[in-house]
Amino acid sequence: MARIEKKSVVLSAVALAVALALYAPCHSFANDDTESFNVKTEVKETTAQRHLRLTSSLATDTVMVMQEDSSQKYLQNPHFGDSATFPLRLFAKLEKNPWHPAPFMPILERDLGCFYGVPPYRVPQDYDVNTTPINVTADTLQGTIDQNLLYKGNVVITQADVTLNADSTEYDQSNTTLTSKGNVLYKAPTYTLSTKEQVESNLSSNITTVQNAAYILNGSVGSGTAEHLKIDDANKTANIDGFTFTGCPPDDKVWEITAGDVELIQGEAFGEAHDATLRVKGVPVFWTPYINFPISNKRKTGLLYPSMSYSSSKGFDYAQPIYFNIAPNYDYTFTPRVMGFRGAMLQNEFRYMPFAGTRGAITFDFLPNDRRWDLAGDNHQRWMFGIQHFSGFLNNDLTFNIDFKRVKPHDYDYLSDIGSDNAHVTDNHLVQTFRSAYNKEKYDVSLELRKYQSLLPDYASVIKPFSMLPQLKASYYDTYGNLFFRTDGEFTYFNAPNENQYHNFSSSRFHLEPSAKYLIYNNRGTELSAGGRLFLTHYEQGDLNDLPSRYRNQLGFTSFDDSVNRALYLIEMRGKTTFERKVFDLRHTQTFEPEIQYRYIPYKNQDHIGLYDTTDRLEDYYSNFSFRHFAGIDRIADTNAVTVGVTSRILDPHDREMYRVALSQTYSFVPTRVTLNPSDPINRYPSSPLSASFDASPIEPLTMHAMASYDNETNEVTAWNAMSEYATRDGFKAQISYRFAKDGNRTLDRRYVDLKQIGLQLVYPITPDFKIIGAMYRDLEQEENIDRKIALRYEDCCYALTFMYEDYNTPDWSDLTREHEKRFGVQIELKGLATINVSGDDNPASTDTYLIDPFNPTNLNR
């Protein structure tokens, strides 16, 4: 081994810079991960926190590795003693040579097979190239230190975290030049460069030249070639002639970018390229004589990639975002959007991050003239305004959030006609909130201001929600031995909208709820506890006559007391035990878990108290064990009842749940007299509906879920739902779901009908590269299709093409009818370069539909 204390041989990360440069015309916050817009405050990590982080990381990695097919097959061998050590041996090997994707244009998990052999990405070391020594090893060395040195055979030259391999390297003392020849391979943390021709580096001038080189961006899909590469480390510049770049595997270049010459200056934010051409299958599809592009994380003003689609109500829909880089922590995106049937639309988004822990966005969408809509006469203007804001202080113990969206008054169809991202809608009302919270280990305090904008016309609206201006909450909780105690407090000022027969109605509520629970016995799977709770509430109420007549004529309210004090208490006891036995091959475990609970709350008439944020509650296994008969605190139901439940599970040899069955029912010794509305009848039947649930995953690809409520009084099932899904690792997925609720749906003409809806989802890979995606939801009771979608997707290693068609149901509130919106779109993705999306659908190749997101309700401890 020889050590040369000279100026270093450093090849600039030109390939990386150029790849970033040609990745997009400009960079936007919208194209980066959300965290890239967040400035994080560094907090010194304690030893305990570091240990927890490393332990969690190891556990996650272990689970991921053990789920691989190869791991499962290895563990099935008869030498269980050998296979038991497999995870440790495997991780020892991975730790020596971990593979990490790049932070830019990373190789996704589904594409790892396409880019086999790509070196892992490593974070570059920070070192001084002039003082860090160069180490050289070779099979043979000829010459002396004051003359030329010739290294031959397996030459390896290293400096810090970069390595150069060659068949031979000659060091010329007279002109301080290193010349490497024969299968030269240069490995840096972020890229790898190879050439069969010589690489010459002048240590005095710090100029390196490379001929006919190929490069790979480590951990990334990016690769390409350079006919002539000149790197001037002294002037921090790089020039490339005959440059190519692609996001495809080197042996399958479906698309490629070529440029006559490229110039980069280290430290500058942007580079330059001349005579740049995008070629698809060798055919030029785009050419520009000059392009100025970013070569760092700094963003630049320019065009972002567009989105387009065709729909029955909008016609051809094209949106072209234009990005303005105002400052590193401020940007603005202006998006002209053209809808063939409706006209032009102007979308605006301003984002800001003035300091660490604070970020937000202000949006304003404006349609000057929607040809298919009018509010009154010739008024065709439509708009939506929104603010989203977050601030966190004191390590995010103190937070502030704003979520505000508003459309033009009486524009009830804006979301169904135009659509909007991140619009928080509850029961056809846009939610407008400001919330601040302070959370500590034993207490928390929050303040919220909430208003609503109705998306229903007056003739279709039943009862509008009350605004909370404000709602102040506080909680304190702690333990002392086996005693757990908690106190919750709340003050809320309710205000009704001054519209639709509401006349400035307002009320206030103060509620205090201290509670305590004592663990009497807890040993060997058996638990017995007792507890109590107080409900102390004071109301100052407005005049019932200021509310719509429906409150009196249909709900049965006769008057509201101006001032009300309500004091109630709860006493409860609960016990649970668990029995286990080995079943099947004596490696599986079956549990039997009975539990019983008694609750008592005395009766108090509450018909003179309004309903401000309280409604009925869905009955299921878990709600039967809750003392809250209603969702909300405006009604505290009297209770003298016992609830019995039983759960049984089947656990596999790794104690993961395979099956779970649960049954529960409540028996009341005295009928509950408190009702939600004064006109509601009292249920004198002593037993609640029998609630049952079932979850199963008998084999890894198959999951099942079912839940039902059976009314013993009427001997009928009042609600049930079921789902079964089969999903394999090769991308196949089939799901069927059904839900039923007696009188659980409301038509546009205000009739209550049974809810009977079926859903189907399918992802079928016809070939490894081609698959068909479908989803359908239908209302069987009203014989109406809710949403139907079908998509065809072709995806190989470097590009994807998706064709999508969707037909979904939209309400027209002007005449209380349903209409069907039909949408067609094409998504074109050149991996590592660009994606042209479908308007309103960022992932058309999934079973997500416009109205319903897919989900799997199976709740097993896996």
Plain-language structure description:
The chain is mainly beta and 862 residues long. It is built from 7 helices and 47 strands. The strands form 3 sheets. The chain has a 30-stranded mixed β-sheet that branches. It is globular, with a radius of gyration of 34 Å. It starts with a strand and ends in a 24-residue tail after the last strand. Mean pLDDT is 83; it is low at 1-44.
Major β-sheet annotation? 30 strands, mixed
What portion of residues is helical?
under 10%
Q: What is the arithmetic mean of pLDDT?
A: 83
Helix-strand category: mainly beta
The best one-word shape is globular
Q: What would you report as the Rg, rounded to the nearest angstrom?
A: 34 Å
In percent, how much strand structure appears in the residues? over 45%
Tell me the span between the first and last alpha carbons. 54 Å
Low-confidence regions: 1-44
Number of helices: 7
Work out the number of β strands.
47
TL;DR?
By secondary structure, the protein is mainly beta. It has seven helices and 47 strands. The two termini are 54 Å apart.
